[in-house]
Request: fold
Amino acid sequence: MKKLVILTHSPEETIELAKKIGSVLKAGDCIAYFGDLGVGKTTFTRGLAQGLGLPDEVSSPTFSIVNEYHGKGLSLYHFDMYRICNEDALETTGFYDYPLDESIFAIEWAENVIDFLPENKIKITLEHIDDDTRRITIEGGERFENFKY
Reply:
C-alpha cells in the first residue's frame, strides 16, 4: 500500500488539504489519527468537516470524548481516545453505538484503540516539522494513492 506524504506550511494549508480529503470521504470511513499533542489533529478535523459541508465549528473532544457534527449529508463523529486504553474503556464511551456504516469517524489518539478499529481504517499521521510546517502521511484507501493536492 502506497503512502501519500504532503507538507503543509500553515494551519490554513492543513485545513485546505483536509477539506479536499473530506470531499472524497464516504459512509463507513474511519480516520485514525496519529501524532503528538498540538500537532494539528483537531485542525485537520476542522477541514474534514468543511469538506463534508458540515456547518458546525469543530472543537477538540478532549473532555467530552466525542463531538458530533451533523449536516444534510454525512455526519462526523470526532473522538478523543487519549484516556482510553483498552476495549472495556472503549465500550464505556458508547463507541460501538455510533453508526459508522452511515457516517464518518475521526479518532484522535488512535494508537490507544488501534486493535479495535475497522481493518480498512485510513491512517493519518501528523508530524511537527517546525512552528508552521507539518508532514501529513495518509495510508489506506486506494482513492488517496493518486490524490492531487
